[in-house]
Specification:
The structure holds 2 protein chains of 2 kinds. By secondary structure, chain A is mainly alpha-helical. Chain A is built from 40 helices and 10 strands. Chain A is elongated. By secondary structure, chain B is an alpha/beta fold. Chain B has helices spanning 9-20, 33-42, 143-150, 200-207, 215-232, 237-262, 290-306, 336-340, 346-371, 429-439; strands at residues 59-64, 76-77, 84-85, 99-105, 160-163, 171-172, 177-178, 187-189, 192-193, 312-316, 374-375, 378-379, 384-389, 403-409, 419-422. Chain B has a 7-stranded mixed beta sheet, with helices on both faces. In chain B, strands 2-3 form a two-stranded antiparallel ribbon. The longest helix of chain B is centred in the middle third of the chain and has 26 residues, at 237-262. Chain B starts with 8 loop residues before the first helix and ends in an 18-residue tail after the last helix. The chains are: A mainly alpha, B alpha/beta. At the A-B interface, helix 9, helix 22, helix 23, helix 24 and helix 33 of A face strand 9, helix 5 and helix 6 of B.
């Protein structure tokens, strides 16, 4: 228990005996007297080079006691770390997170600190190997434990995506919601820290209202979502919308009819026909244009159009139109005595004149005819003006003859819709509500409806229908009620009894579908996934694998990239920085900031969607840039489109770009407003990328030396002075070389030769283990060599994100499996298939299971 | 409300100005019945039941400044006309008769933990911030939320919780604390931060929320409460706790709707009826200009108090560890947090002080605004206790002793202003909180680590 005391006694003799029990004082003595390299006592065990041969209590503990307990016992707790009191491998793994840090420090030679006695190289290596062996091989006893699973609400990001996939509208309403903190493994989807406050509930109510204002309620089309906000609509407006839709449909179909393309050809037929019609009504006042046209096998609509065209007359400046209309009006008034042949003979010259004018259309009259490519007849456009009455002139019977089957069905549907809305029948309405709300709720709740659920919704509707201004409004409010239901807002899984012989239960395929879609898309399952789950096929391994691959290839996998990779690495955060000091960096503006954020976001999404190796985060040979960013980086690439919204995937061969280390977003985030910081960059690489964060400096140290004797020194030189202090050196020996290797990127990510003081940059660094880092290339190579640490980190982050919670030691087997699989094949799909197939992802604890998560405090 | 038109802050104030000159109507002065008002008067100027001596309700706001101060330039001495303010506090000089500079206060339970999170989240709770990545947050209930809970339902908003920076996501892995702690000083339960509004427009809309067209909301809330009830039977115990939050939120929104419906029927109504149509909604989004943003949010507090929309508000100028680029200030080049770690460099100390002074200018702004609004026989400032402070004194060493704290206003509640008060006899920050709570009508004998209220009279 008191290693240092024992040693002090050995070295300090009688003097120290009196000090036993006051560890702080005895430590002081020990430090003074240990200044010379004293060999460890010979009773200290020698560790085997086979970790399996090492026993914790017999071999490892005495060594830890000797080298570590002085500072890390319960009394001293240096750095808040207590190692004493761990007496077995089991206790060790229960605190695996702390021990992984111990392992990191041991391997990085940062512990024991420089001024303390150091183990020899063999002891260090063997102890590290042993600790890793224990951590990696320890299997929690008893049945596998999926860990705690908490219901949680959708994150703001998930809310927006789910609304998008539910309605087809990308409204991004959660921008108004309170920002989310986060916790666990560092993600906002951490269940423990997703609060549902009254303020948020109000915002959900508001958002649901904003959503349904885009909703048209149609008897025949169900719930129809519109890009434009329709707003509150009265009964009459709602009806009119159906009529308008019907008119528009008819018009669009008419506009497609080839018969109207060439007015000049039509004139030769229709001008005489219209003249004949004027004669025919003299004989039969009741004869309509439609009847006449039908008798003559002509298009009534065109005849109507021509008639309206002549009646409307020319507009101001419509010179050719004036000629056409004048030619028509120059015809003699109808006379009942004329024969049809005489009528045609009279009309023929006018028809020719009209045709000749119209024939000039493409060239000379383009000014009046507008777009000559427009298939719609000029006569119809000019004659009907806004063409409002025209579609009704064309009987539906005539129209149907020109439509294909699908078009006929659609026309019928629109007519039915129009009729039903005018009818206003409570029974129709209730039937329609039940018909349309069911499929919507299944998608909104991400599961089939439960028994009685549809009735309850119908009852809600009945309760508000009378007070609602319209059927549409009542349905909209029913939809709102769904959008603020816990079934929509929360992700809740059923509690179920343990599977045979265990303490946990497999979740249902339906629940698995949601876990999968919220992991990969940060959104609801699509129809393929939900239907697969409903059919009970998702638990099939091959099907699950197929789905993961399918979902990754979907654009929506940017949800995983943005939320998991983005929050882990923090790069998209750059969009929210207020940037460097523009006096020092006058070329900085928000367009550049947005471009840097865009690159990070799109690069991460591209990695996931194209299923690259995960290591591409470090060594990708491409990036995604817009023209401004390519110029900023000095990339010699020719991009077609210069717009800031045009992004291009480009090769980074021969440039210092590629991977996150070459990204300006990273460089800017790890800089102070006036300069870049090797320390912040080192922290980011070690902490975020490799998962061995360094603690902040204690309050009384961490000051860069100032004053005359350091003036004129470069930042590098000042930092190296600073490392002369052992308390600083513990971390800075690791941080600084990593940061130095990236010093050629300035605060904006530009590749520069000289630092801000005009001094040439030395971008070499030496790691505590002796590894030389020659610039960023050297750093990349070093990281790739140490990819096991990267795999461990990405496995932990991905699993923590997928489960929405902090990891437990019971997750060790899963993590180990993930790390092993990544060592074999480190593609994103392998990682994610493995997570999706993992025990904790597919199970939840059964109700009786006690919460056995270990105490967070040190032992 | 009128058709929204984006407009700058000045126009909004102009709109508010219309109402400022309205005379006080004594007939409206009936909160808690006249007996209570007399009681207040009888108590010799001390607030009773959260009322000021004039019978107008007492309000409280707490303003948080991140990253501490340059302690060399933070001081005040003496009282009355002889009161002198150091350079950082100098912007308060014109209004010094209305401030009380509290010296030597100490938030004992901010010891340990880390340099920022453990000294921010508990600024108003006085309890220890539990180190966690999120599983078991614990901060204690903040004093502003105790007040909010005491007066819940009596005003349209229980409290107004404002800020300018969103809470940062995730965990600060260097220290192992969730960053939630750095973004919240208001906690409605020991484990639940109150979400904050950072958009001026949304804060404004919340104040003027239309209470019509809410009939369906009630039906919807009833229906989803039903959903939650059914759900409760099928989920695990842990999940039931999570659903509990859902229930609470629903009920809170229902009671807010009720309060809205009852608005205008409460016992005390501000006579200076502000017509929302005279005001212009702030533009959507976050203002680019930091000062504009701070002042818009401070205006919201003034407006909310003036209209009796709430009794209590908090505002965070920034999150703890805020690295906001302060180069917009003359003589400053760099980020706030970075410069607070001045490393005793004279140049950084100088810049640090400019930043501190800038925040005091904002305090002077809101104090001046409140003083310009007449209410009852005094001003809104007399009926408001405006607390300004940071969780750190020297930011470089993360020192949490001798905190920089200023209390403005509160004369109607017996706060004797116009002086510097050395608190060495009772130096706990929570003693100040306890004193403020008691004035707000909270029956409490101790708060946090304090059993004796700080004597402010």
């Amino acid at each position: 228990m008191h290693g240092r005391h024992r040693k002090t006694w050995l070295i300090g003799g009688l003097l120290a005996i009196g000090m036993v029990g006051t560890s702080a004082i005895s430590s002081l003595f020990a430090q003074d007297e240990d200044a010379g390299a004293e060999p460890p006592p010979d009773w200290l065990p020698t560790l085997s080079d086979d970790p399996a041969q090492i026993d914790f209590a017999e071999h490892a503990q005495p060594i830890l006691e000797w080298y570590c307990y002085d500072c890390h016992d319960r009394a001293t707790r240096k750095g808040g770390v207590v190692l004493a009191g761990i007496d077995s491998e089991r206790e060790l793994v229960e605190h695996f997170r702390e021990w992984e840090k111990v392992l990191d420090q041991l391997e990085a030679r940062t512990m024991p600190p420089m001024d303390a006695e150091q183990p020899d190289e063999a002891t260090r290596q063997r102890l590290a190997a042993y600790l890793r062996h224990v951590l990696d091989n320890y299997m929690p006893e008893g049945p596998p434990d999926p860990g705690p699973t908490l219901s949680r609400r959708l994150t703001n990001f998930e809310y927006d995506n789910t609304v998008r996939d539910l309605t087809g509208l990308d409204l991004r309403l959660a921008a108004q919601f309170p920002a989310e903190g986060g916790g666990g493994e560092g993600f906002t989807n951490n269940a423990d820290t997703l609060f549902l406050s009254p303020l948020l509930m109000e915002k959900y109510l508001d958002a649901s209202q904003q959503i349904v204002e885009h909703l048209e309620v149609s008897f025949t089309g169900g719930l129809v979502w519109h890009e434009t906000r329709l707003g509150d609509r009265g009964r009459q407006q709602w009806r009119d919308a159906a009529t308008q839709r019907l008119k528009q449909y008819r018009y669009d179909r008419l506009a497609e009819l080839d018969v109207f393309i060439d007015d000049a050809d039509q004139a030769a037929v229709y001008v005489p026909a219209l003249y004949r019609y004027r004669h025919a009504v003299l004989a039969d006042e009741t004869l309509t244009i439609d009847q006449f046209a039908e008798g003559e096998s002509l298009h009534a609509v065109y005849l109507h159009g021509l008639s309206a065209f002549f009646a409307a007359g020319p507009g101001e400046g419509d010179e050719p139109i004036a000629q056409v209309v004048a030619a028509w009006h120059a015809l003699p008034e109808p006379d009942a005595a004329r024969t049809v042949a005489e009528q045609d003979e009279l009309a023929a010259p006018a028809a020719r004149q009209i045709a000749s004018v119209l024939r000039r259309k493409p060239k000379e009259t383009a000014r009046w005819f507008g777009d000559v490519e427009d298939k719609r007849s000029f006569v119809l456009q000019a004659g009907y003006g806004r063409l409002e009455r025209m579609p009704f002139a064309y009987s539906d019977a005539q129209m149907r003859a020109t439509l294909d089957e699908a078009q006929r069905a659609e026309l019928q549907r629109l007519q039915d819709e129009d009729w039903l809305r005018r009818e206003g029948n409570a029974d129709h309405e209730r039937d329609a509500l039940r018909r349309m709300i069911g499929p919507f709720v299944r998608r909104a709740y991400r599961r089939p409806l439960l028994e009685g659920e549809l009735d309850a919704l119908a009852a809600f509707y009945d309760g508000i229908r009378d007070a609602s201004p319209s059927f549409e409004d009542a349905v909209r409010q029913t939809v709102r009620r769904v959008l603020v239901s816990p079934h929509f807002l929360l992700r809740v899984e059923q509690d179920r009894a343990a599977d045979d012989g265990g303490t946990s239960a497999r979740i249902s395929d339906i629940e698995l579908a949601s876990r999968l879609s919220y992991m990969l898309w940060a959104s609801m399952p699509d129809e393929d996934l939900l239907a697969t789950a409903e059919a009970g096929r998702l638990s099939d391994d091959a099907e699950l694998t197929r789905q993961v691959h399918r979902m990754l290839a979907d654009e929506k996998s940017s949800g995983f990239a943005e939320q998991m990779l983005g929050q882990w690495l923090g790069l998209p955060e750059v969009a929210r920085t207020d940037g460097p000091d523009v006096e020092v960096f006058p070329m900085y503006d928000t367009a550049l900031r947005d471009a840097l954020a865009g690159e990070a976001r799109l690069f991460l999404a591209e990695l996931v969607r194209t299923d690259t190796p995960t290591l591409s985060l470090i060594d990708a040979d491409f990036t995604v840039v817009n023209a401004a960013l390519a110029e900023h980086y000095g990339l010699p690439v020719a991009l077609g489109d210069e717009s800031p919204d045009a992004w291009h995937r480009v090769s980074t061969e021969g440039s210092p770009r590629g991977g996150v280390l070459g990204m300006g977003a990273f460089h800017l985030l790890t800089s102070y407003p006036t300069r870049s910081s090797p320390v912040l960059r080192g922290q980011w690489v070690l902490g975020a990328l490799l998962g061995s964060p360094t603690p902040p400096p204690p309050p009384d140290v961490g000051e860069l030396p100032e004053g005359e004797h350091v003036e004129g020194l470069s930042l590098r030189e000042r930092l190296s002075l600073h490392r002369a202090d052992p308390a600083c050196a513990v971390c800075h020996d690791r941080l600084d070389p990593v940061g130095f290797a990236m010093q050629r990127y300035d605060a904006l990510g530009r590749w520069v030769d000289k630092d801000h003081a005009g001094q040439p940059i030395d971008d070499h660094g030496t790691m505590p283990d002796g590894s030389e880092l020659a610039g960023v290339e050297g750093l990349r190579a070093y990281l790739v060599d140490n990819k096991d640490r990267f795999y461990r980190q990405i496995a932990r982050k991905t699993l923590g994100y997928a489960l929405g919670r902090e990891l437990e030691y019971t997750d060790r087997p899963t993590l180990r499996r993930l790390e092993q699989r990544l060592a074999e094949d480190d593609s994103f799909s392998t990682l994610l298939v493995e997570v999706a197939s993992s025990y904790p992802f597919q199970h939840r604890r059964a109700p009786e299971t006690r919460d056995i998560s270990p105490d967070e405090d040190s032992p | 409300m009128n058709t929204p038109k984006p407009i700058n802050r000045r126009t909004m104030l102009k709109g508010m100005g219309v109402t400022l000159a309205l005379p006080w109507l004594e007939s409206m002065n009936v909160i808690g019945g006249s007996a209570m008002a007399q009681g207040a008067a009888a108590a010799g100027g001390e607030a009773v039941g959260g009322l000021t001596a004039s019978g107008a309700p007492l309000r409280m706001a707490a303003l948080f400044m991140p990253n501490g101060v340059n302690t060399q330039h933070w001081d005040a001495q003496g009282e009355g006309d002889a009161m002198t303010l150091s350079d950082t506090l100098a912007p308060m000089d014109g209004i010094k008769q209305d401030i009380l500079v509290l010296k030597g206060l100490h938030n004992r339970n901010a010891a340990g933990g880390d340099g920022h999170y453990a000294k921010t989240a508990n600024l108003l709770s006085g309890e220890t911030v539990r180190k966690t990545k999120g599983r078991d947050l614990h901060v204690g209930v903040s004093m502003d939320q105790l007040i909010a809970q005491q007066y819940a339902g009596q005003t349209p908003l229980d409290s107004l919780v404002l800020a300018t920076e969103p809470t940062r996501g995730g965990v600060d892995t260097n220290v192992g604390f969730t960053q939630i702690y750095g973004g919240h000083i208001s906690w409605s339960s020991p484990t639940t931060p109150v979400p904050k509004e950072i958009y001026p427009r949304l804060a404004f809309d919340r104040l003027f929320r239309d209470s019509t067209a809410r009939a369906t909301d009630r039906s919807i809330l009833d229906a989803v409460l039903d959903d939650a009830n059914r759900l409760q039977n099928t989920v695990s115990t842990n999940d039931r706790q999570k659903l509990g939050e859902f229930f609470e939120s629903i009920r809170a929104v229902e009671s807010r709707i009720e309060a809205l419906e009852a608005e205008g029927r409460e016992q005390w109504t501000p006579d200076t009826a502000v017509d929302p149509d005279d005001l212009s909604r702030p533009a959507p989004g976050l203002p680019d200009d930091a000062t504009e943003h701070y002042r818009l949010m401070l205006d919201m507090i003034v407006l909310a108090f003036q209209m009796n929309k709430t009794r209590v508000a908090t505002f965070m100028f920034g999150n703890s560890v805020s690295g906001r680029n302060m180069s917009f200030l003359d003589g400053v080049s760099g980020g706030h947090h970075h410069l607070s770690h001045h490393e005793n460099s004279p140049d950084k100390l100088r810049q640090y002080q400019i930043i501190n002074r800038y925040f005091i200018e904002q305090l002077a702004y809101i104090t001046g605004r409140m003083k310009a609004i007449p209410e009852a026989d005094g001003t809104l400032l007399d009926h408001t206790m405006l607390l300004f402070g940071s969780g750190l004194s020297d930011g470089n060493s993360h020192n949490f002793r001798n905190l920089p704290v200023v209390l403005a206003g509160g004369r109607g509640a017996g706060v004797r202003t116009g002086r510097a008060l050395d608190c060495h006899d009772n130096n706990r920050l929570c003693a100040l909180h306890l004193s403020l709570l008691q004035r707000m009508g909270i029956v409490a004998e101790h708060f946090g680590d304090a059993d004796t209220p700080l004597d402010l009279s």
